[in-house]
């Protein structure tokens, strides 16, 4: 049995609708929250089972199965709600301790729902998931260790199902593997740089030492040999210089400083120093900061699939941050602008930039922002591009961007 799929199968549109009405949320918000809460909860169950060879989870599963929740899901957000919620709160406390509230807040922030909704959904889900665990354990006569072995078989599936927009490092000791791997593929490193030597630096040092050894060797050779060795040294030195230039760029990326951007109300966003969140919030807090159609803040961690307007999953974190900023500043109105470089067909570029501006605008709304705070996005194509089409791809990157303009505050 695939635990994650089995639980998802129980979360029908009817149940989502009941939860939305009961909690006073939109169905899309509840659906998004459940999509994040379910794998996070199962990850917590696996983590708890690993701590004592499955004994505590087996006990919790028996307790949950005895509630009869699987036979009366319709009463989950109705007649039996208070009983189930009390049981769920107890189970969440047993799984996460005081960090249960942190997880609830993470889910609420990710889905754009009320702070209390994330915790309520976790309390509703816990008896369901643990009842499913208990059902499997009883049907197969599993002991605690047998249950742990079965749960461990779900690790990869569960980790990959946790949205990249949720950082669970504050809930679990280890960040989710899939999140870490996905971030490594697309996003700059957010952690402080390690005090150890980066792996890519050692080959550079060895190359430099090799060039130095050749130089010493040249000193003891005859003129002809010296000429040959000199040429070899020059080649080696050129390679070292090129490698050092590349390394300097990597070092700059490696040490990019991360920070927490604090919003009114105390919520903090994980961002980069000098990134769009940092600059945008600083401007909104400064009455003298100029706003309007001529002032734009560039996204620095937003990407699309090649040649399309489909936002990559790894970009959702920054989309969520912009939505959170709008919710923290309810009087602010923004406009999204899309830009391309000078390569390719002008009309096609303008069309793509418009599609991308629209996609980001809708994504920010879907992340929980008030639609009234977002003007219709506009694609400018290559109209404002400054780098020649013949320039390198790296040089033209500055012209390919998505930006935010504050139109009211």
Account of the 3D structure:
This protein folds into three domains: 3-181, no CATH class; 201-254, no CATH class; 258-408, OmpA-like domain (60s Ribosomal Protein L30, Chain: A). Helix content is 57%, strand content 8%. The protein is an alpha+beta fold and 409 residues long.
Topology record:
Elements: H1 3-10, H2 13-23, H3 27-51, H4 55-65, H5 81-96, H6 100-111, H7 115-139, H8 144-152, H9 155-161, H10 177-186, H11 201-219, H12 223-254, E1 258-262, E2 268-272, H13 276-284, E3 297-298, H14 316-328, E4 333-339, H15 346-366, E5 378-381, H16 393-396, E6 401-408
DSSP helix count? 16
Shape: globular
- Element string (H = helix, E = strand): HHHHHHHHHHHHEEHEHEHEHE
Q: Report the β-strand fraction as a percent range.
A: 5-15%
Mean pLDDT rating: 82
Count of individual beta strands: 6
Q: State the helical fraction.
A: 55-70%
Low-confidence stretches: 174-196, 251-255
Which structural category fits the helices and strands?
A: alpha+beta
Largest sheet: 4 strands, mixed
Structure in a nutshell:
Helix content is 57%, strand content 8%. The protein is built from 16 helices and 6 strands.
Which short descriptors sum up this protein?
409 residues, alpha+beta, 60s Ribosomal Protein L30, Chain: A, four-stranded mixed sheet, two-stranded antiparallel ribbon, 16 helices, 57% helix
